[in-house]
Amino acid sequence: MSGSESDSGWYDETLYPDVAQRLRMGRVLHRDRTGLQDLVIFENPVLGRVMALDGVIQTTEGDEFVYHEMLTHVPILAHGRVRRVLIVGGGDGGMLRRCLEHKAVERVTMVEIDRSVVDLSMAHLPAISAGAFDDPRSDLVIADGCAFVRETTERFDVIIVDSTDPHGPGAVLFTEDFYADCKARLTPGGVLVTQNGVPFLQPGELKDSHRRLGRRFGDAGFFVAPVPSYYGGFMAFGWATDDAALRRQTAEAIRPRFAAAGLVTRYYTPDIHVASFALPAFMLDALK
Ligand code: SAM
């Protein structure tokens, strides 16, 4: 079992060797190994219900809005004409839910490798997906996302990689071959965005993705947001497209799209959208 439930009723993350966060474990709603991963869902007095996979916090009811709003609204509102979205991973359904809030989006295909994550999230974390799996525009595929993008002939305007970290089943989703296949599945002017770790503690992941994305896309960069339960400061989101103008749009250009979409958000705003691409010096230095 990854992650450790200390005898004092705390959940200790095991992502890093020398620092760790711990969350008090109230009621444990599920703890078992799926066919692929150690999965635990428990209650915490501050964050609400929490899901962890292989010792790493994946999502919490309390702060999921930051991560899911940014990884959907930024690419969809920047692109402006999104009709087809692919989500790779995203088992908890929070990303699916936010994509479907865009009424102009006609179809969201979600490729999740572990059926148990979906089933247990629907059972114990229903507030996160909020019925998204029942939306007729949803298309859930249980498969390896890497194999899916290699084999599908479908095309997408936005691809969102909402994966675990680059170990276990998630490792293949950080390779250049996977990014190349994603590129081939994007429509002209399409955007790939990725969960790309916490740069202060995972600088190697940032550099690797920047190099790999840069070899396949005309414009590869990052945007950031602080996700409280992703310990270590800013979370980085990979950004890759051949249309370099997409990440340089002004808040004035985004604002009418945001208003027209009628989104109700708790983190995302058009100003936050624009500001999220302004990276701190230590990240810029790491990307030189
Ligand atoms: N927000 C989280 C984060 O930033 O780490 C990610 C949450 S979501 C639960 C991660 C999902 O990626 C999991 O459900 C996991 O099963 C899925 N996953 C991992 N490797 C995958 C693969 N190769 N293909 C499809 N889904 C995968």
Automatic annotation (TrEMBL):
<keyword id="KW-0808">Transferase</keyword>
<dbReference type="Pfam" id="PF17284">
    <property type="entry name" value="Spermine_synt_N"/>
</dbReference>
<feature type="binding site">
    <location>
        <position position="68"/>
    </location>
    <ligand>
        <name>spermidine</name>
    </ligand>
</feature>
<dbReference type="Pfam" id="PF01564">
    <property type="entry name" value="Spermine_synth"/>
</dbReference>
<comment type="subunit">
    <text>Homodimer or homotetramer.</text>
</comment>
<dbReference type="InterPro" id="IPR001045">
    <property type="entry name" value="Spermi_synthase"/>
</dbReference>
<dbReference type="GO" id="GO:0008295">
    <property type="term" value="P:spermidine biosynthetic process"/>
</dbReference>
<dbReference type="InterPro" id="IPR035246">
    <property type="entry name" value="Spermidine_synt_N"/>
</dbReference>
<comment type="similarity">
    <text>Belongs to the spermidine/spermine synthase family.</text>
</comment>
<dbReference type="InterPro" id="IPR037163">
    <property type="entry name" value="Spermidine_synt_N_sf"/>
</dbReference>
<protein>
    <recommendedName>
        <fullName>Polyamine aminopropyltransferase</fullName>
        <ecNumber>2.5.1.16</ecNumber>
    </recommendedName>
</protein>
<keyword id="KW-0745">Spermidine biosynthesis</keyword>
<feature type="domain" description="PABS">
    <location>
        <begin position="8"/>
        <end position="242"/>
    </location>
</feature>
<dbReference type="InterPro" id="IPR029063">
    <property type="entry name" value="SAM-dependent_MTases_sf"/>
</dbReference>
<feature type="active site" description="Proton acceptor">
    <location>
        <position position="162"/>
    </location>
</feature>
<feature type="binding site">
    <location>
        <position position="37"/>
    </location>
    <ligand>
        <name>S-methyl-5'-thioadenosine</name>
    </ligand>
</feature>
<keyword id="KW-0620">Polyamine biosynthesis</keyword>
<feature type="binding site">
    <location>
        <begin position="162"/>
        <end position="165"/>
    </location>
    <ligand>
        <name>spermidine</name>
    </ligand>
</feature>
<feature type="binding site">
    <location>
        <begin position="144"/>
        <end position="145"/>
    </location>
    <ligand>
        <name>S-methyl-5'-thioadenosine</name>
    </ligand>
</feature>
<dbReference type="GO" id="GO:0005829">
    <property type="term" value="C:cytosol"/>
</dbReference>
<feature type="binding site">
    <location>
        <position position="92"/>
    </location>
    <ligand>
        <name>spermidine</name>
    </ligand>
</feature>
<dbReference type="InterPro" id="IPR030374">
    <property type="entry name" value="PABS"/>
</dbReference>
<dbReference type="GO" id="GO:0004766">
    <property type="term" value="F:spermidine synthase activity"/>
</dbReference>
<comment type="function">
    <text>Catalyzes the irreversible transfer of a propylamine group from the amino donor S-adenosylmethioninamine (decarboxy-AdoMet) to putrescine (1,4-diaminobutane) to yield spermidine.</text>
</comment>
<comment type="pathway">
    <text>Amine and polyamine biosynthesis; spermidine biosynthesis; spermidine from putrescine: step 1/1.</text>
</comment>
<feature type="binding site">
    <location>
        <position position="169"/>
    </location>
    <ligand>
        <name>S-methyl-5'-thioadenosine</name>
    </ligand>
</feature>
<feature type="binding site">
    <location>
        <position position="112"/>
    </location>
    <ligand>
        <name>S-methyl-5'-thioadenosine</name>
    </ligand>
</feature>
